[in-house]
Amino acid sequence: MTRTATSAFMADVMLITLDNPPVNALSNALRRDLHEELQRAFEDAAVRAIVLICAGRTFVAGADITEFGQPWQRPSLPDLCTFLDDAPKPVIAAIHGTALGGGFELALACHYRIAALSAKVGLPEVHLGILPGAGGTQRVPRIVGVEAALEIITSGRRIGATEALSLGLIDAAVGDAILRDEAIAFAKRVIADGGAMPRIRDRTVTVEAAHARSDLFANFRKANPHRFKGFLAPAAIVEAVEAAVTLPFDDGLATETALFERLVASPESAAQRHAFFAEREAARVPDIGADAVPIDICAVGVIGAGTMGGGITMNFLNAGIPVTLVEMTQEALDRGIATIRRNYEATAAKGRMTTQHVEQRMALISPSLDLGALVDADLLIEAVYESMDVKRDIFARLDGIVKQGAILASNTSFLDLNRIAAATRRPACVVGLHFFSPANVMRLLEVVRGSATSKTVIATAMKLAKRIGKVAVLSGVCDGFIANRLLAPRGYQAEAMMLEGTPIAEIDRALVGYGFAMGHFQMMDLVGLDVIGRDAAKRTVMGDLVAAGRLGQKRGAGYYDYDEKRRPSPSAVTAALIAEVAAAGGVAGAATRGDEALLARLLYPVVNEGAKILDEGIALRASDIDIAAVLGYNWPVYRGGPLFWADQVGLGRVVAEMRALEAVHGEVFRPAPLLVRLADEGRGFGSLS
Ligand code: 3HC
User: Fold this and answer.
1) Which residue out of 4, 18, 20, 23 has the highest number of ligand 1 atoms within 8 Å of its CB and is therefore the one to mutate?
2) Which of 37, 125, 256, 327 is an active site residue?
């Protein structure tokens, strides 16, 4: 068996190299090998100091998440850290890339940390629904103090080497190219200075300072409600950090371990780990291999400088890719560019970028009123009005302008991509790139594969998505693609229940209780009722609200009334309109009451649509559907997405409840064949992968 940790002796200093591609995760094998190498170095009288360094692209990225759910094999990661605590010789961690989670905890158990200037450290466990389980919650407060530790561990943010140095999380930061040599030199200096072995566990100043401040933890919880809602891990992190203050180090560690074990066994953490792997799995397209070589995208053209076009443009500017932005009128172009600038300036005002960065990004835009300016672009993205005729016209014109091999993309959110592609003589170059609004923020990018789209184009789109910080999910062509099609039934059911007499506030409350940031009607009001396209032929509550000037939050009135702080309250006007529209449409039926019944009505049709999307081959895998819902519609990540959630409910129960709903509300609740088959076989969507 190949060893994942090996040693080389460099006059007094033992260099132990961890090599477990791709990210040096601390698997059972790596921990065992590292333990043996350390043991050998501890016993070897010629060794006076040890440097831990990693091969490949990064320092240790954490515990091996794929091994979660199985008991730790010995030595566990906490054991390994204790073994380092008890080391008889100085140990220095040499960090490059990212030292995350258990990787950073391993480094914190060493006596010294030296990092490359480009390195980052952090404890991102919270994003997996767990807490740092190898001493992170006990050691970090001993370095940075309790408040900073709470912020670092509950946010899971990555900290650059310079900030880490100023916080004391590392002892030195050096040029990337000289990390190894500097780490050895550091070790030699430690030896020359007498071989001191400072341990973070022995520090007491910061935790003792927090003794007198009993309100600190309650205040932190109160100040950060968004970090806690629905999630289990943040509260457990606070509890563990509190233990660092109130208990001796070993007892604090024991508290941390107990909390870790509870969290790792929770459905919330299972869901968040599912999302972690789903995000990465989505990038794989089974029939696209190394033979499909992605095109280099050096210049992009965006057609349409409206909200979507502007947001799309920002993604490329952020990645340093120049964009030619084309509009029909100077006014629209100026407005679009001014909005982009305003967005950047707002970010700069919050201290999240410098004014120099704002100017660098703005300088990458070439505005134009002429499609001819797109002649050199490698990728063109059309983001104009959702009209088949308009889009076909643009694509036909682009066909005569852009260079051979350029990719022609449409940002359409529901139109038939194959019809758009047919307007050109190069349908193989046409792809859908469906961004979600706000396009510079939302991480989902649906890559829509038309019947003629070439493999090269798909490979390019998937790679480009990662470059601009998006998670690409491949979709086939259908009305609404994956995410919009998936979630549409939730809206239909919300509106149907409203007409049957269920108060909209109850419907919204059930969704918020489930974990959505807001309910269906709150979301409509936020987007603006005039912005949402409606079926003009049919009388609807929304149509009536718009006619009454109740356009949503921006007017202080929509489905809800809003006060000056934009807090919603039920509206008598809306209630009367609902009753009128229901009477006019002859809507019968009783109000649905109780969160469980409301959620079954709202969310089972989403699960059902997911089953259809999967069965039709529109999505490649169940986890793609989940990640599209999480990243495109803010489906609560601790529920894992609709299909993961349905598996947890049990498909047998989902089907039985849907059949009961079908008996009352009709066909829309008829369980999809795939759902029925899986339920009959006692399986879940997870078993399909
Ligand atoms: N365990 C197992 N596999 C991991 C892993 C981990 N901790 N981290 C990454 N991987 C895998 C990914 O699944 C992916 O596999 P694939 O190629 O088969 O899809 C591969 O490594 C590469 O990962 P990315 O595609 O994410 O590569 P990037 O270069 O974009 O990012 C990274 C690298 C920043 C290290 C990123 O992978 C990451 O954030 N990893 C997770 C870090 C983390 O959460 N660490 C904490 C783990 S929990 C823990 O340590 C518990 C402890 O406190 C006890």
Assistant:
1) 23
2) 125
Residue closest by Cα to atom 32 of ligand 1: 61
151 as an active site residue: the answer is no
Nearest CA to ligand 1 atom 24: 280
Is pTM, for the whole model, over 0.90? yes
DSSP state letters, 2-48: --SEEEEEETTEEEEEE--TTTT-B-HHHHHHHHHHHHHHHH-TT--
Element of type H or E holding 390 = helix 388-399
**87 within some domain:** yes
Q: Give the active site residue among 37, 43, 105, 331.
A: 105
How much is the pLDDT for 55? 97
* 674 Cα–ligand 1 center, Å: 32
Residues 159 and 49 in one domain: yes
Q: How far is the CA of 63 from the centre of ligand 1 (A)?
A: 9
Q: What is the ipTM of this complex?
A: 0.98
Residue 327 falls in the annotated catalytic set: no
Residues lower than pLDDT 70 in the chain: 1-2, 533-537
Taking CA atoms, 328 is separated from 335, 367, 370, in Å, by 12, 11, 8
Same domain (yes/no): 603, 574: no
DSSP code string of 195-227: -----GGG--HHHHHHHT-TTHHHHHHHH-HHH
Give the residue from 240, 279, 205, 12 showing the smallest Cα distance to 105: 240
pLDDT value at residue 6: 85
In a shared domain, residues 403 and 517: no
Which tokens go with 614? 């999967």
Residue nearest to atom 26 of ligand 1 (CA): 280
Q: Which atom of ligand 1 approaches the CA of 62 most closely?
A: 50
Query: How many distinct structural domains can be found in the chain?
Result: 4
Is 231 inside a domain boundary? Answer: yes
Residue 279 alpha carbon to ligand 1 centre in Å: 11
- Ligand 1 neighbours, Cβ below 6 Å, are 22-23, 25, 58, 61-66, 77, 98, 100-102, 105, 124-125, 128, 132-134, 280
Tell me the backbone φ, ψ of residue 283, rounded to 5 degrees. Answer: -70, -15
Distance 101 CA to ligand 1 centre (A): 10
CATH number for 469: 3.40.50.720
- HEC profile of 613-676: HHHCCCECCHHHHHHHHHHHHCCCHHHCCHHHHHHHHCHHHHHHHHHHHHHHHCHHHCCCHHHH
Domain with 682, as residue range(s), is 595-617+620-688
Q: Which pLDDT does position 535 carry in this prediction?
A: 62
Residues 183 and 133 in one domain: yes
pLDDT of residue 513: 96
- 54 and 147 in a single domain? The answer is yes
With contact defined as beta carbons under 8 Å apart, do 578 and 587 qualify?
no
Map residue 365 onto helix, strand or coil: strand
Distance from the alpha carbon of residue 276 to the mean position of ligand 1, in angstroms = 9
Q: For residue 536, what pLDDT is reported?
A: 61
Q: How far apart are CA 660 and CA 504, in angstroms?
A: 23
| pLDDT at residue number 194 | 96
pLDDT by residue (tens digit) across 232-284? Answer: 999 999 999 999 999 999 999 999 999 999 999 999 999 999 999 999 999 99
Say if 64 falls within a structural domain.
yes
pLDDT of residue 533: 64
Residue whose CA lies nearest to ligand 1 atom number 36: 61
User: How many angstroms is it from 280 CA to the middle of ligand 1?
Assistant: 9
